[in-house]
Every structure is written in structure tokens, then in C-alpha cells.
């Protein structure tokens, strides 16, 4: 059996972990189990109604969720993992479980928007939890922000949408010296490029909606870490808050994740090609991609990311909002839509109407940004598409 204790390599884990033979039919793939209740034991008084191990009600746990949990734990090299309905449900579940009134959290200044809102608005107002946002690419800034009541340091690396990187090993050391835990949102990197638990993190979060599912059809989220921490999250946030994943979504993500290592290779290859092409184009104001030497944390990217620099980049055009919108409208293969990590390339233009724009680096503030999720198409077709749309943003050359 391929599980988290196995010494198999990541491509083998991606195929086999969590799969097995269905005892009733002999099917060699785990079936989709669409049932919200499971048969009770002969003497239900023996049952702990809050348990999440013994199947009896699909909010506490369902069969496809359990298969996917064991796969994600294996991919991250974790003792355990919990799977929830969305990435945000997983992030909320982790914060809600680990933090109490009076506690303090130090968080990357650039993270997924819902994390920013949860930590700067909702948890402070509702529960009296306080947050300090810091430029976590600077470990000293993290150290300076720590207080006696700091319970958790949360970072996103690479960060959405700026692709800023944080040194996981350095920040884990700072958090642990202060008696705090470190959680890492590793959605952009996936377990193929980075395994934060090996670098000292206590918890690793994924939006499974993105690369791990990879096909743009299902939503899910996960947290991986020690059995003790993951059990607490499961008990508080599945049993009593209810962010359970549907069996069908868990089944789709399980299926999509089989090809994760192959897909990541193509995402990385395409993104690097495109980043280099864009950086050399006169209509492009700036490009941020961890694989470019111009990226502020390029040397950290070389150390911390293995096998590629990810599929996400950000760039801006020498032009106003109208020019950016016209460029996006002129694209033929690349689709204008949110989300990321799909098989198809996606782009989204974010102008000045982003409430966190003041936290972004200078070129993002000046030009706005196009967040680009490089798909797994042929890179030449993607570059041709970008090229023809960029040509239209420039005034015709007169000779
Ligand atoms: C999309 C995303 C999330 C949220 O995930 P959902 O599945 O959409 O809830 C969290 N973190 C990062 C980095 C993301 O890109």
C-alpha cells in the first residue's frame, strides 16, 4: 500500500496513494460512494457521535473524502490530512480551530483575498483575534511582528497574485522559537515543487480546486500536518461547523491528482517560456515570475522550489485599464476567468479596484496586473496568442 509512511517517489504516490480494491465488486478503482449515512453498529451506544474515523454520517466523514485524505497526506509527507469543501473552508477551519480570543497571528501581507478578509476583518470583529500583516519575504519583519500572544504564523508562498516568495525554513525557525506554529498555503507550488512540512512548517494548506484537481471542474481544500492538529481541525470544523466536501468532488479531485506530476512539468515549462517572451516585449511594463532572474526572490526560488518555478505569473502592460481590457478581449485561446491551475490557460485583469493594491509592489500599483495561469497547451500556441493580442495594443509603426 502506498501511504504517507511509504518511501515511494512522488509520481508513484500520485498514482497509487488512496486507491485500492473495492471489496464488494473487486473494482481496482475506489468507487464514488454517494450516501449521506452509513449502517450503524449493532450497539450504537458504543459509537462516539462526534468521531470522524468510523463512517456513519457524511458530514463527519465520507468514504471518498477518506481516500483523498490519505492521498494528500502521502503527497505532503504528512501523518494526516483533512479535506474540506473548498480551500477557503480549509483555511477558515485551520484558523478557527487554532485561534482563541486574545490570540495573535502574523500573516503575509499578500495572500488569497479571503485570508486577508478573515484575518483583518472577520476574526478580529467576531472573536477578538488580532493580526499583523508583514512582508514575509523579509524574515526579520516576521520576527519583529511576533508578540507573546502570537499563536500562528501564516504565509503563502508563492503568493497570490504577486508570486512573492517566503523562506519557509527561516520563518519556521522564527515561529518555533516564539512557541508559535507555522502554516503555509502551498497552492501555487503543489507538493510536486515544494513540501513545506520537510522545511519545518507545521501545517500545509491547499486549494484543491486549483492544480491538484487541475481540470477546472471540482472544488475542495485540504490541511495536512500532525495527527493531533488535523484531528482537532476535523472535529471542530467538519463535525461542528460543517464544511464537508461532497463525495463526487472528492472523487473528481482524486482522479485529477493522478496526473499532477506530469501536468506540473508542462505548467512550469509553459510559464517559463511565456515569462521570457513577455519580458522581452516592448508593450509589457513588467513581469513577475519566480523563474526569472529579475524576480526579487529568484535565488530563494532556486533553493526552495524543486523541478520548476510554477505555472503562475503576473505582468502589466504599458497602458491604462482600457488597454489591458482590450488586450484580454483580443486573446483567442487564453480565457478571461478567475481560478487557476486548470488544464487551460486563464487570465484575469485586476486594476486599481483591488482593496489590497497598496500592499503590492510598485509596478503592480502603477500598472495594475494581469494574473496569468499557464495551462498545459502547446507553449508556441500560447505565445502566438499573446503576441497577436499585444501587437494590437501598440500604435502602428509609421515608416
Ligand atoms: C484559490 C485559492 C484559495 C481558495 O481556494 P478555494 O478552493 O477557491 O476556496 C486559497 N489560497 C490560494 C493561494 C488560492 O489560489
TrEMBL record:
Keyword field: Amino-acid biosynthesis, Aminotransferase, Methionine biosynthesis, Pyridoxal phosphate, Transferase
Gene3D superfamilies recorded: Aspartate Aminotransferase, domain 1, Type I PLP-dependent aspartate aminotransferase-like (Major domain)
Molecular function via GO: transaminase activity
Entry keyword Amino-acid biosynthesis: yes
Cofactor section: pyridoxal 5'-phosphate
PANTHER family found in the cross-reference section: CYSTATHIONINE GAMMA-LYASE-RELATED, TRANS-SULFURATION ENZYME FAMILY MEMBER
Family listed: Belongs to the trans-sulfuration enzymes family.
Protein name: Aminotransferase class I/II-fold pyridoxal phosphate-dependent enzyme
Organism from which the protein derives: Fodinicola feengrottensis
Record lineage: Bacteria, Bacillati, Actinomycetota, Actinomycetes, Mycobacteriales
Amino acid at each position: 500500500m502506498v501511504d504517507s509512511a511509504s518511501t515511494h517517489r512522488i509520481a508513484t504516490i500520485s498514482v497509487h496513494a488512496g486507491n485500492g480494491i473495492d471489496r464488494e465488486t473487486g473494482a481496482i478503482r475506489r468507487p464514488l460512494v454517494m450516501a449521506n449515512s452509513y449502517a450503524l453498529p449493532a450497539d450504537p451506544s458504543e459509537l462516539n457521535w462526534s468521531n470522524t474515523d468510523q463512517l456513519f454520517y457524511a458530514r463527519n466523514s465520507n468514504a471518498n473524502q477518506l481516500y483523498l485524505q490519505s492521498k494528500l497526506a502521502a503527497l505532503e509527507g504528512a501523518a494526516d490530512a483533512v479535506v474540506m469543501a473548498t480551500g477557503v473552508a480549509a483555511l477558515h477551519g485551520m484558523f478557527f480551530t487554532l485561534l482563541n480570543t486574545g490570540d495573535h497571528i502574523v500573516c503575509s501581507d499578500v495572500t488569497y483575498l479571503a485570508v486577508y478578509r478573515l484575518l483583518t476583518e472577520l476574526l478580529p470583529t467576531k472573536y477578538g483575534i488580532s493580526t499583523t500583516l508583514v512582508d514575509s519575504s523579509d524574515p526579520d519583519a516576521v520576527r519583529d511582528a511576533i508578540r507573546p500572544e502570537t499563536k500562528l504564523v501564516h504565509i503563502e508562498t508563492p503568493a497570490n497574485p504577486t508570486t512573492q516568495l517566503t523562506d519557509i525554513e527561516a520563518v519556521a525557525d522564527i515561529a518555533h522559537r516564539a512557541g508559535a506554529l507555522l502554516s503555509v498555503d502551498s497552492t501555487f507550488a503543489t507538493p510536486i515543487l515544494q513540501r513545506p512540512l520537510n522545511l519545518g512548517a507545521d501545517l500545509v494548506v491547499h486549494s484543491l480546486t486549483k492544480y491538484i484537481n487541475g481540470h477546472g471542474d471540482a472544488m475542495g481544500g485540504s490541511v495536512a500536518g500532525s495527527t493531533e492538529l488535523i484531528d482537532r481541525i476535523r472535529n471542530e470544523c467538519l463535525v461542528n461547523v460543517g464544511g464537508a466536501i461532497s463525495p463526487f468532488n472528492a472523487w473528481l479531485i482524486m482522479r485529477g491528482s493522478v496526473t499532477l506530476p506530469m501536468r506540473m512539468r508542462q505548467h512550469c515549462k509553459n510559464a517559463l517560456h511565456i515569462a521570457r517572451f513577455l519580458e522581452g516585449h516592448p508593450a509589457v511594463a513588467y513581469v513577475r515570475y519566480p523563474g526569472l532572474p529579475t524576480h526579487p526572490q529568484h535565488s530563494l526560488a532556486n533553493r526552495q522550489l524543486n523541478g520548476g518555478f510554477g505555472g503562475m505569473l503576473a505582468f502589466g502592460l504599458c497602458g491604462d485599464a482600457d488597454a489591458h481590457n482590450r488586450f484580454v478581449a483580443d486573446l483567442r485561446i487564453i480565457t478571461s476567468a478567475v481560478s487557476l491551475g486548470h488544464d487551460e490557460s486563464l487570465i484575469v485583469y485586476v486594476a486599481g479596484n483591488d482593496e489590497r493594491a497598496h500592499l503590492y509592489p510598485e509596478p503592480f500599483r502603477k500598472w495594475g496586473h494581469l494574473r496569468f495561469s499557464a495551462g498545459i497547451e502547446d507553449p508556441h500556441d500560447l505565445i502566438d496568442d499573446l503576441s497577436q493580442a499585444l501587437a494590437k495594443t501598440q500604435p502602428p509603426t509609421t515608416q
